[in-house]
Amino acid sequence: MIETKNLSKIYNPGKFEVNAVDNISTLFKEGEFTSVVGPSGSGKTTFLNCVGGLDQPTSGEVIISGENITELSGSKIINYRLNNIGFVFQAYNLIPVLSAKENIEMIMLLQGVDENNRISRTNELLNQVGLYEMRNRRPSQLSGGQQQRVAVARALASKPKFILADEPTANLDSKSTSNLLDIMSQLNEAENITFIFSTHDQRVIDRARRVVTLEDGKIINDNKK
Amino acid sequence: MILKIAWRNIYRNKKRSLITITSIFAALFLIILMRALQFGFYDKLIETVVESYAGYVEVHADGFWDNQNLDNSMEVDQSLINDIKSVEGVANIVQRLQTFSLISMGNKTKGGVINGINISDEQKITDWNKKMISGTFKIGKNEIIIGKGIAEYFDIKENDTLILYGQGYRGMMAAGKYPVKGVIDLKNPDLNKLGVFMNIETARNYVSSDEISTHIIVDKKQYYDEEKIANELTQVLSKDYEIMTWKETLPEIEQTITADNAGGVIMAFILYIIVVFGMFGTVLMMTEERTYEFGVLISLGMSRARLFGIIFIETIILSMIGVFIAIIITYPITFYYNLNPIDMATLMGEGADQMMEEMGFSPLFPMSIEWDIPLTHALVIFISSLLISIYPAIKISKLNPVKSMKI
Fold this sequence. Notes:
The structure holds two protein chains of two kinds.
Chain A: E1 2-11, E2 18-28, E3 33-37, H1 44-51, E4 59-64, E5 67-68, H2 75-84, E6 85-88, H3 100-111, H4 115-128, H5 144-157, E7 162-166, H6 174-191, E8 194-199, H7 202-207, E9 210-215, E10 218-224
Parallel strand pairs in A: 3-8, 3-9, 6-7, 7-8
Antiparallel strand pairs in A: 1-2, 1-4, 4-5, 9-10
Chain B: H1 2-12, H2 14-54, E1 57-61, E2 74-75, H3 78-85, E3 90-105, E4 108-117, H4 119-125, E5 132-135, E6 144-147, H5 148-154, E7 161-167, E8 173-184, H6 189-194, E9 195-199, H7 200-206, E10 212-213, E11 215-220, H8 226-236, E12 241-245, H9 246-249, H10 251-288, H11 291-300, H12 304-339, E13 342-343, H13 344-348, H14 352-359, E14 364-365, H15 372-388, H16 390-397, H17 401-404
Parallel strand pairs in B: 4-9, 6-8
Antiparallel strand pairs in B: 1-11, 1-12, 2-10, 3-4, 3-7, 3-11, 5-8, 6-9, 7-8, 13-14
Helix pairs in contact in B: 1-12, 2-10, 2-12, 2-15, 10-15, 12-15, 12-16
C-alpha cells in the first residue's frame, strides 16, 4: 500500500514558487491499476517521482507498506528503490551498451542475486514480455515497443510490489501500446503488482481501473471504475 | 557486469577511445625512450668514470679526503678487509696508494698522480687491462704504466724512462727513475693526463713506507645500492675511517647527471601535462554526455559508488591500454639499443668522437633496460588517472537523478 499524506513539492521556494504537487493525500492499494492523468504541467511526473523516492518532497510524507520513505536519504533510498519499486520511463531508458537480457539481469546483479537465479528469472521475464528470441539484441536493435517491453521486464526483475510508469506509451504506436498494456494487465492480475501510470493516453486511461486526475498539482477527480 | 559495462562504454566511442589511447601511448613512448637513453648515458658515464677508476665506495683514513697527503694514509690489516667484505653487497675490494708527484723527462716536467696498485686485484674491479694501447697490463718491480695524455706530452717511446719526484711518507723525499712499460687510455682526459701506475710495493718503496695505503676501493655487486653499502660500512668500521660514495668523491659527475636529469624531468612533465589534459578531456566528455544515463542508473537502484566504479574502471582501462602498448613496443627498442649502443659520434659527424672523449665520456650511448623506467612512468599515468577520476566522482556524488533525466 502506498499512502501520501499532505504531499507537496514546490520548485524555486521563496523565489518564483511553482507548486508542482500541492498537498496531495491519497492511497494506492495493493493490486491497483491506476492512471494519473491531467494536462501538461499538472504535476503528474513530479507526483510519481515523489512517490517513487526519486524526488524529495518539500513537505508531507510518502508511506509505502508502513515505511516513510521521505525520511530515507543517500544510499538507503537508492537501495529502497532497487528492492521495492520498478520504474518504466517514457524514453525506455535502457542502458545502450547492454543487451536486452543484460539490461534485465543488471538489476538482479545490483541486488546480489546469484547467477543461476538471475539467468532463470531473466529468461522467465523475457518470455513474459515475448522477447526471449531477441534477448541478445542491444536497445538500438529493437523497436520502441520492444524496448519498452524490455523496460517493463527490467522493472519487474527485482520483484517489486509497485511499478511506476511515467507516460510509458507516449512514444509507441497503437499496436505496441495495446501489446504493452496487455502484458501489464496480465502481470497486475496474475502477480497482484500495483501499477501507477502517469499518462495522457486515452488507451491507457481506458484500461485503468482507477483514474486520478490532477490539475495545478491537486487531485481534482479520483474515479474508480 | 561492471567491468563489462565499462569495457563496452570504451568501445561505444571507438574513435575517441583510440585517440586517447594513442595520445597516452605516444607520450609514454617518447618519455620511456628519452629516459632510457638518459639513464643509459648516466650508467655509461658512471661506468666510464666510476668503475674504471674511482669505485662506487671508497674507504680512507679519517680526514684524508680534505687533506690528501701521505701522513693521512692508513695501514690495512686483514681484520679491516674482513670487516669491509662482511657488508652485504660488497663484491671486491682493492687497496691503492695514491700520491702527487712531479713527472719529468728531458726538459719537460708536469704534475701527475702516482697510483700504487695490485695488478691482479685491480682486474676484478676495473677493466684497465682492456684499455692498454701499448704494452700489457703487467708491471714488474720499478716499472710503470702511464696515461695516454702523459705519453703524448712527453712523446714517450717504449722503454723510455720517467723521473718521478715528490714527497714521501712523514716528510721523506720520494724520487726514482722508472721505465715505461705501457700506455693506457682510460677514456677520460683528466685521468689520461695525470695517471701513472705502478705496483703498490713499488709505490710504497717510492714513498718510503712498507705498509700504507691511501684508498680502499669497494666494488659492489650488481643492483646493490652504494649508499646502503656506505651506510653499513659506517656502522661496521670505526671512526678512524671515512667512507665516501662516488657521488662525494666525484661530485661533478653527480652534478652533470642531476642537471641533465632535470632537463629530462621537465620534458617528461610537459608531455605529461599534454597527456593528462587529453585524458581529462575524454573523462569530462564521458561524464557530461552520460549524465542522463547516470540519472537512469541511480533511479533504477545503482549506488553512486558503483556508478563511480564504472567510470573509474573506464579511465583506468583507457590509460592502462596506452601504457601497456607503450611498454610492449619500447622494450624491444631499448633492449636492441642496449646491446647495440647508439653511436653519437656517427650521428653528430666527424670529430665528435674526439670531442666526447675529451669531455670524458664515450660516444656510444646504450639505452637503459631497467624496468623501473617504464614502471615509474606507468605509475605516473595510473596516479594521473586516479586524480582525473576525482571529477566524475564529484559529479556523481552531486547528481540529482530527476534533474539529470530532464536534460
